Amino acid sequence: MKTMEEIETKIKEILAEDFEVDPTNLKSETNLFTELDLDSIDAVDLIVRLQQETGKKVNPADFHEIRTLGDVTKAVYKLVNG
Prior knowledge:
mainly alpha; 54% helix
């Protein structure tokens, strides 16, 4: 999971598996909260899954401004490649 495309694909898989979201409907601009109805507990669950996938410690504060799938992808890319 190094490129933006690989990261976005993995996040879509996580959303499909853990949150029962149809990955074919996910676009970079999809809002996780208003369009997918995720809540703060779901956000924490997503962070935990991303930590498992990347093997890196995710700082929850870095995710406070995240709203879209694209935002998550960029944050994970920065975490993995930063």
